[in-house]
Prior knowledge:
- This protein is α/β, with parallel strands linked by helices.
- It is 33% helix and 19% strand.
- The strands form seven sheets. Strands 4, 5, 6, 7, 8, 20, 25, 26 and 27 form a nine-stranded mixed β-sheet that branches. Strands 12-13-14-15-16 form a five-stranded parallel β-sheet. The chain has a three-stranded mixed β-sheet with strand order 1-22-23, with no helix packed on it.
- It is globular, with a radius of gyration of 24 Å.
- The N and C termini lie far apart (73 Å).
Amino acid sequence: xxxxxxxxxxxxxxxxxxxxxxxxxxxxxxxxxxxxxxxxxxxxxxxxxxxxxxxxxxxxxxxxxxxxxxxxxxxxxxxxxxxxxxxxxxxxxxxxxxxxxxxxxxxxxxxxxxxxxxxxxxxxxxxxxxxxxxxxxxxxxxxxxxxxxxxxxxxxxxxxxxxxxxxxxxxxxxxxxxxxxxxxxxxxxxxxxxxxxxxxxxxxxxxxxxxxxxxxxxxxxxxxxxxxxxxxxxxxxxxxxxxxxxxxxxxxxxxxxxxxxxxxxxxxxxxxxxxxxxxxxxxxxxxxxxxxxxxxxxxxxxxxxxxxxxxxxxxxxxxxxxxxxxxxxxxxxxxxxxxxxxxxxxxxxxxxxxxxxxxxxxxxxxxxxxxxxxxxxxxxxxxxxxxxxxxxxxxxxxxxxxxxxxxxxxxxxxxxxxxxxxxxxxxxxxxxxxxxxxxxxxxxxxxxxxxxxxxxxxxxxxxxxxxxxxxxxxxxxxxxxxxxxxxxxxxxxxxxxxxxxxxxxxxxxxxxxxxxxxxxxxxxxxxxxxxxxxxxxxxxxxxxxxxxxxxxxxxxxxxxxxxxxxxxxxxxxxxxxxxxxxxxxxxxxxxxxxxxxxxxxxxxxxxxxxxxxxxxxxxxxxxxxxxxxxxx
Length: 632
């Protein structure tokens, strides 16, 4: 059984007011780490004769710098949130020294697939990610987000996230300040919020569709008029001018085979029914700007058509397209092999489509009080929507059982017969603890679906089940890992909080892929976990340990690194709970040169920053600098 805790270590964090009222640490990092020229100015001020004095020195660590270069022992001097020197640094040159003897020193991990758009407002570390060495995350994935949103549609926007990403409504309502309407105002709010990780914002397409078309027409999939396309274009330009780094969309077509992520009422999300021409127009905006990237999940049931459309988006824009998701299915290895062959062909033809791999085997511990990932089956989707009383009645209805048995879900989990009964509530059901539905069905003389639903209904849908991930085979994982350009993940951080702990994936990668199975070297792993996602998604200067780079650094004990057992913690706003898995072995995590995690514990230091434009100076400043660089 999984351990349960009453408190999860999340201390309430007062929300910062205007920028001038932000904590001193945040103000300093905004001044020095985001703009390298200012960091260099500060460095010059602290230069004393032949020696430089540093804020911190990480001493005598084994440096794996993220570039794929061979590891080496050395010191890292940090000044103004930036790596100022790497090599050998004499003692006594720093205000603080970190002894990294016997430890790995590497760039912080970068997580490209999260849904922390709400959680960042109450959890500065964006956990689980922050506990597992992640120092930068991308928000706004899959076209889902909270800006632009008109005030009268705020509750509806939160409702949309309760099923598609399974974020508790009470937590969003209690934890989000809603001091914005437009996307630029949303970014300002994120910037004011104390953060212990860096945040890079995608521009989600869903809220823009609702803003321009209205909720009903966006949900109906009405094609925008030319004038409405022009307004969508204007909104994307406005969002990217403010710091957005590209756009994202989930396109799981409602009549496709894997429409597993739906709105709170079981209907498609606006991006699921958006038109191809809208995507083409949005891609053309990136081409005009020669900036940004795209993240898209597209499943129509026609693989050739979907792959051609990914390629078209990359070709129109000339920018990277992050394709979700490269996943192995134990019973269908032809699927991931076909995708890997296609991705390789894209690279050979110079088409910038990059696969996001599902490299964690985190399964799903769930009850039918919250479960939504059987939505690819119409019968199951209909039976699991509505109030608790309505769901109990539908799942217990004998007339529905035939359809539930013939329309089995097949996307999110392995075969339903392998689901395990992990949390029966009634004494008479304790005999089935840790039985698969197949085994319990054999003993009872029942179909596995009847076993599951009869127990769940009798227990008010409180019975806990565990569904293993369908990608459990280590040889299939190796085939994905062996492709050097597949991104690692997907964490879905901030989403599915009551039944998924995939935010553990960086620690899981080092422990399982590198240490246990030796599929790749430590040098390759850190390139894949940090430098590659940074390059794909435009995290300027991050993902590697080189002089002049922001000091996002992890110091960890490779031999003793571990993913800890699952817990249930009651640490969400609104009295809600979630499942977590912590890490053990991270001695220090530094974000912009400040220690945010020490010996696996949060330090209450909030040195993260909003990475507008990926961390670059804004567009106007860049243009001004380019003009100044021209010969007279």
